[in-house]
Amino acid sequence: MDRTGQIGAIVLAAGRSTRFRSTRSKLVHELGGRPILAWVLEALRAADVSPVIVVVPPEADELRALGDDRVRFAVQHEPRGTGHAVLAAEQALAGFDGSVLLLYADLPLLKADTLRGAIETHRRQRAAVTLLTATIDDPHGWGRIVRNHDGVCAIVEDRDTTPAQRAICEVNVGVYCARAPALFELLHRATPDNAQGEIYLTDIIGGAAAAGMAIADMPVALAEVGQINSRGELAAMEKTLRAQINAKWMAAGVTLEDPDTAYIGPDVTIGRDTVIGPNVQLRGRTAIGTGCRLDGSAFICDSTIGDAAHLRFGVVINESAVGARCQIGPFANLRPNTRLGEDVHIGDFVETKNAVLERGVKANHLAYLGDAQVGRETNIGAGTITCNYDGFDKYRTVIGERVQVGSDCTLVAPVTIGDDAYIATATTVRRDVSAGALALNPRGQEERPGWVGAFRARKTAGRGGSAAKPVGGAAKAKPVARKAGPTRRKRRAR
Question: Does the annotation mark 29 as catalytic?
Fold first, then answer.
């Protein structure tokens, strides 16, 4: 047993993903809104494992992009087996005298607690190598665990088993913990004497047993160590993960009206007594407050929703913050950097972007508020837009407190509207409006009697058709004479 107490990890991510039928590594495909590789890296981080060496194939820029300051990368230039892949990490661990966890990159349901358990077993039993095993009814395709009177003595891959070994139901799940110096010594001794002509990582068990090294083992639930080798397995894993996450939140006091259609990411938090309707997706680092109501068909990503907020049907919110008791939707779109204060109302077909709406603002219908600052208790009428882009640059609109913006108004940025101002219906605001002022564009209504009839007559002349009967006549209508009624005196006399 090493005396350093250090625990690192080697993650095998150099597979070619041939069964995935993808131009990209299967490990960058998302599971629960997170790349498959990121799940294992997060479990290692939570188990306080460092350094982490990820073994990748050549041309693995997409995988490298998923690393952080704890992760180093090593390249397996030729696909010569799992043991050969671990040897590719040897140089990256030069001088490291602790133990390392060895695991495949496509084990997204493996828990940090299980990794801690493997480390504890490895230390407690002073083992040179520790491995995780599972017992299953149908072991076809799995490497079998072979035991003797001393314990585990070998792992035999399925394709290399004898008839007697095929009947063994205890299988290798591909997770180990080994002293780094002993690990590389054993792998350098391994030979490719197998059906594939490869250096197997599993050979370290037989090598350690032959050398009289201590081998420890720990059972693990099979559900934790399922791998993803195809799109079908990815879909099945997505369903399993979603069920686990949803069960956790229902146990914590959240109502899911239809758990089968609730998609909640692993980094999402939800307060008690929140009710989530069908077809809701909560992605990224979204935080939902207590006592909220999400009616259904909402998509919320990397956003914060305050307590008692009500999100009506069909709301989309990205990278935004919604205050307590806000009412959003239906069919509202809050684009990145939207910040809503408390008690804000955003109605149907309202879009915001890079906008701050302070407490009590209402924009209930058909509006666009981009690059805007809106003060408290201001009301935005239907059809109002902020014109924030001139084809080259974005400009900001600042609207004060208690402003009344009428319907169908156009606010051409950069522009500032003072507190308590009133913007008349259909006004185009091009200059700043002072506090308490009325802004309007004087445009009288003009009417041309008989214009429609004359227009239709011009269009139909010479086409062989008859003009439609003029609406209102071509000339000014004459007043209709009315018969005078009896006077009051005569009416009373009768």
Answer: no
Residue 38 shares a structural domain with residue 181: yes
DSSP 224: G
pLDDT at 206: 93
Assess whether 221 and 240 both reside in one domain.
no
Phi-psi region of 66 (alpha: psi -120 to 50; beta: other; left: phi over 0): alpha
Task: Report yes or no: 383 and 401 within 8 Å, Cβ to Cβ.
Answer: no
How far is it, in rounded angstroms, from Cα 486 to Cα 328?
Answer: 62
Report pLDDT for 289: 98
Residue 363's pLDDT is 98
Domain limits for position 273? 231-439
CA–CA dist 48, 153 (Å, integer): 30
pLDDT computed for residue 473 by the predictor:
52
Same domain, 307 and 194: no
Q: Could you tell me if 224 and 109 are in contact, meaning their C-beta atoms sit under 8 angstroms apart?
A: yes
The overall pTM is greater than 0.85: no
CA atoms of 358 and 232, how far apart (whole Å): 47
CA distance readout (Å), 478 to 87, 451, 470: 103, 17, 15
- The per-residue pLDDT for 488 is 42
Residue 273 sits in the same domain as residue 217: no
- Shared domain for 377 and 414, answered yes or no, is yes
332 domain residue, yes or no:
yes
Residue 98 has a CB neighbour count (10 Å cut-off) of 16
Q: Position 73: which residue type?
A: F
Q: Which helix (H) or strand (E) holds 120?
A: helix 112-124
Residue 4 confidence (pLDDT): 61
Q: State the 10-residue block means of pLDDT for the chain, 494 residues long.
A: 77 87 91 94 95 94 89 92 94 93 96 96 95 94 93 91 94 96 93 79 93 96 91 94 97 98 96 98 97 98 98 98 98 98 98 98 97 98 96 96 97 98 96 97 89 91 64 50 45 41
- Buried b / exposed e over 54-76, threshold 16 CB at 10 Å, is bbbbeebeebeebbeeebebbeb
- The edge-to-edge listing of strands for the beta sheet with 262-264 is 262-264, 280-283, 299-301, 316-318, 333-334, 351-353, 368-370, 385-387, 410-412, 428-429
Count the alpha carbons within 13 Å of 210 in the hemisphere toward its beta carbon: 10
The strand ranges marked E within 123-183 are 129-135, 144-148, 151-156, 170-179
